[in-house]
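Researcher: Let's walk through a ligand-bound prediction step by step. First, I give you the protein sequence. Second, the SMILES string for S-adenosylmethionine. Third, you return the three-dimensional complex as structure tokens. Ready?
Model: Ready.
Researcher: Here are steps one and two:
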Amino acid sequence: MGYSHENEAKANFNDVYTAPTPHAYIAKMARHNYQIGEQARPYCIAAAELLRKNNGEIWPVQMLDVGCSYGIGSAFVRYGCSFEEIIGFFASRAPEDYASCCEVTRMWLNVTSPICNIRSVGLDNSGPAIKFALGSGLLDGGIARDFENPEVMPTEDEQGWIRSCNLLVSTGAIGYVTEKTLNKILPYFGKDHPSDFGPLAVITILRIFDSEPIIDCFKRFGFDFQRVEGIRLPQRDFVDEVERVKVLEILREKGLDASEFEEAGTHYADLYVAAPAEQIDILINEMRSVREQFPPQKIAQPVPR
Ligand SMILES: C[S@@+](CC[C@H](N)C(=O)[O-])C[C@H]1O[C@@H](n2cnc3c(N)ncnc32)[C@H](O)[C@@H]1O
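Model: Step three, the predicted complex:
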């Protein structure tokens, strides 16, 4: 039950999730070559475009980013920022004072039009991260709650936000977030505007985590949920030898071959998608065609000052 064994092996970044501005979070992620958000970006954009193509103006795309931190997923998908640009912005131009940081980030985002016309809602248990994401305009709606806690249930307003979303994305968050959170989201997800197409989900899950409870949860709520074969994405480098040894041990216990992946020093995640059963093949084919356009490549990141 749960992912406590796997989380014990994984380095803990909790100290940078709750500052008023993203500076420490971005700097720490950059130091460890964190790249899953950017690696997943073309797949999330393709799913958004698929929804738009099929629903037109009837059901505009509204993304629910689960474990959204400071709204960085929205910066990737909606504004087309690269992580390199984000690192550079927070290392040199964004003031550390909360109000000024929100204002300067808002101006920075508004310089160019969004590349993907979506509205963004984020869920994270970090109140400060959600506050910044809303204050800077990265998110239109924010849910600062810990649905892993059995006593916490979505309020009516939160249910409303979840109902209005037709694209669920999550990168780098499964492990912190489990089926307990999804059990509280999925009863509402996409229920506002039932149409012929969607809702859809695009989720990355680290290979050390068991995906079965997530698959079962989506199935319970009427979705088909599948790993997209052949799409394995680097998440971040191991912080040290201790993490490397523990992670490789877990992969061995699970019978997974790490020789072409984690053994070189990087966490890997697989790409999973969810859709109503009759649409899952369309979504999987779309993900495969993205893979052909964006074959795996190392994303180089500058080390922040
Ligand atoms: C590694 S970060 C990933 C952030 C972002 N999705 C990305 O890929 O850049 C993990 C996020 O999960 C959030 N988190 C941890 N526990 C959570 C919970 N119980 N519910 C929602 N979010 C949680 C953390 O606050 C943090 O923002």
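Researcher: And what stands out?
Model: The CA atoms of residues 163 and 291 lie 30 Å apart. The longest strand covers residues 224-237.
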